[in-house]
Structures are given as C-alpha cells and as structure tokens.
C-alpha cells in the first residue's frame, strides 16, 4: 500500500494525464482553504528526505508586507496566510471592511469594482513572488493550479507577466496551467500511485 498527501496526488494526476501530461518537472499547487504543493519529476512524486518536498505554503511570503499574519503552524507571514481562500478574503476585509468570498471578489472586479480589482492585483503580485521562489529553486517545466482559487481565470494571464521580476532568469518559460481534472485530480493521483 502506498500513501501520499493530497497535493502530491494532485500533482501526479496532472503530470500523468492532466494539464501537464508528459512534462518532465511539474510543481502542482493547491490554492484552497490552505496552500499546498507537490513535485513530480519524470512521472514520479518527489517526497524528499523529510517527506515534505513541495510544502511551500509554510515558507514566508517574500516581500515586505505591512502585516505578517499568524499561521496555525506557529509562524507568521506564511504563504498560506496570504494565498489561501481565507487569506484572500481576510486581505479584502482588512482593506475594505467587506467580507466577501473569493468568487464574489472576482465577479465584482470583473464588473468594475475598483476595491475588488485592487485586492486581486495584490493577490496576483503575492502569488507571482511566491512562485518566483519556486521557479528559482526547482525551475519546473510547468506549474499546475488546483483548489478553489484555480478557478480565478485571470491568474493564468496575469501571474506569468509578474513572476519574471522575482526570478533569476532573464526569460521564464515555465508554463502556468489550470488543472484538467478539477476536484477529481487528487483521487486520480492516488490511483496512479
């Protein structure tokens, strides 16, 4: 019997027959109630010596944020506290006083709400900084998004335009992809194990 966490299973599914099928190095990202990640190299999950490979959500968000929120892990300023769905909702509420779900923020931004647009722009810049670190360390061929926030379609156009500012390379060719199998990808990856 083989076991792995949801992010590893998600990454394996998307690397095997999903959005990144046939790609050599895949970083699978789950942006939902939390933030997780999994790494697949040549169709194999990279677990690491400590079994934590890909756990980028509990690294500190690069940058100089005005507020470093506490994380349940005991640290402050973790990527998860900014890039999870609750993190996006909290950021918007702190600035505007309105508690809106991420899909509501997205819909209002698309309808011209300037405060919601500003919230999503902050989110995109933070995601680009965080993924820039991953690109610098892992240099994946593809990054595949999963989780509820993967449905924010604007991320796929906007984030790659920003992450180059945070990478060591003059040109970033890493593909930024939406998952193919949606919520089923984690279960599918578990079957692929």
Brief characterization of the structure:
This protein is of the alpha/beta class.
Notes on the protein architecture:
- By secondary structure, this protein is α/β, with parallel strands linked by helices.
- The protein is 42% helix and 13% strand.
- The protein has a single domain, classed as ATPase, nucleotide binding domain (Nucleotidyltransferase, domain 5, 2-Layer Sandwich), CATH 3.30.420.
- It is built from 7 helices and 5 strands, in the order αβββααααβαβα.
- β1 and β2 (35-41) form a beta hairpin.
- α5 (114-138) packs across α6.
- The chain is globular and about 45 Å long.
- The protein starts with 5 loop residues before the first helix and ends with a helix.
What labels would you give this structure?
alpha/beta, single chain, Nucleotidyltransferase, domain 5, 5-stranded mixed beta sheet, 7 helices, 193 residues, disordered C terminus
